[in-house]
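lol so apparently i was supposed to do this last week
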Amino acid sequence: MKYFKYKGKNLFCEKKRVLDICKNIETPFYLYSYNSIVNNFSKLKKALKGINAIIAFSVKANSNLSILKTLAKCGAGADIVSMGELKKALEAGIPNNKIVYSGVGKSKEEMAFALENKIEQFNVESLEELYTLSSIAKKKNNLAKIALRINPDIIAGGHPKISTGKKTDKFGISINDAHKIYDLAKNLKNIKVVGVDIHIGSQILKILPFKRAFKKVLSFSNDLEKKGHNIKNIDIGGGIGVNYSNDKDIDSFLYEYVDLIKNTFIKSNKTIILEPGRYLLANCGILVTKVLFKKYSENKNFLILDAGMNNLMRPALYDAKHIIKPLIKEVQTNDCLDYEVVGPICETADILSKESHLAKNISQGDYLFIDKVGAYGSAMSSCYNSKDLASEILVKDEKFYEIKKRIKTEDLTKFESIAPWLRKN
Ligand code: LLP
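anyway here it is w/ LLP bound
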């Protein structure tokens, strides 16, 4: 089932013609399909049948409350990395016993808040963090359930900026050190070891790195049990990649990934925690934008859009490729040109696509959309150049709703104030 598709000339999101939304909402805006999220979740859940698993959505991929609520209703847990994400996950109705807390830099205040809310597991990334957590838990007369995130020293194969499992990365603890720290944790007050954790990177489309990582984490967990630790959870992180280069979803990779989970862990009788972000959301969202200008220079056709790197960082940051298409197909005739599609931001890196094949007659005011930006799209946006933050719209069948209003410069300047010596008297 495709949730964004052309009917005749027009792009539809589910049963809603996107052009009709453009009449009410100013571009650029993010547009999500509710049913595609539900579909992705249930596909994964169904595939995992037979294994005791928690699907803890990685909130950093998309933290909009309506999105979190959609996932909560599906039965998702959450992988959070800040107090803000925890607050949003709880507000959306994600149960605390399905929440795991990742990240190398949790503040004391954040740890205290997560303790008060009795989350399922802290994924601890250093000895110092463990000591700090123990002392906060002691002060609060609380019990911190922990796993150590191990660094398996595996090259995951995705973009270097989103690879996390090599020993030179800041993430996790080497297996040697982790052995010592688990033994130490056993004697720490107010700390209860409940699991082991691993996360090797993102946008991974090869099974081998996962295979190596899962094997390592399982054998490590077995070693810990032999030493008397009680391991209830194995958290295998996120990382499942998606196909950005065309319309197709690569379900075969998902099934290969799930088979690997089953084959590796089924006999262990552990609860397997998964932390998918991109897989659940990437293909559920598009960024709708408008052509501001066309410009020809130095043998290049530039198409200048009202969306830029402030709205979508991925191309500038990781050279990520997202397909750009017209909202109304008529605009895309056989008579095409190669455009460099850029945004309005005053940065050379503000390129959304180095090469997009689009109609020659495309013109000012035409609507385009950038595909597969439901994950790490809006979540990574900024108001650089004092641009507004784009609104977010959720479609279900023929209904649509503005789930996040456009945040304007005036909204943000409310938090600024003129230093007294600069004010006129
Ligand atoms: N768990 C942990 C501990 C993580 O750090 C991440 C992502 C995930 C789970 C979810 O990974 P996923 O299933 O989405 O691959 N901004 C980058 C991606 C950065 C991922 C950071 N960590 C991008 O736009 O490609």
